[in-house]
């Protein structure tokens, strides 16, 4: 069966967590040439960036905001794990024991991942 109880919406939770992760990673960092090009329009000239050099960078989040974004990322990842495990249990893919074992294992893995997480920007291979 492999789940489906929640129409696989747990993956949407992961997408939100990934978006928050990228906002954390980009905070205060220079925008790529592609990002500047994509902004285009009235900003697509040197005069604009001479007048507004801060627009060459992503918005810098305050430390308190960054910490809350990190908390949000962690909570959403946990929500994704719980949704996945409950989904598989309700769909009959996991029994009671395997539900508890897999939930514990997934949460321990997340804890390990979070312990070494750096929230670095992933480079785009198609960067111009």
Would you kindly provide a written description of the structure presented here, covering whatever features stand out?
This protein has 128 residues and is an all-alpha fold. The protein has a domain at 10-29 and 60-116. It is 62% helix and 0% strand.
Compute the separation of the termini in Å: 43 Å
Sheet of most strands: none
Percent of sequence in beta strands? under 5%
From the spread of the alpha carbons, the general shape counts as elongated
Provide the structure class.
Answer: mainly alpha
The residue ranges in which pLDDT falls below 50 over 5 or more consecutive positions are none
Q: What is the count of β-strands?
A: 0
Instruction: Tally the helices.
Output: 5
**Overall pLDDT level:** 90
What series of H and E elements makes up the topology? HHHHH
Query: Roughly what percent helix?
Result: 55-70%
What's the gyration radius in Å? Answer: 20 Å
Furnish the topology, listing elements before pairings.
Blueprint: H1 10-26, H2 33-39, H3 46-51, H4 63-90, H5 96-116
Helix pairs in contact: 1-4, 4-5
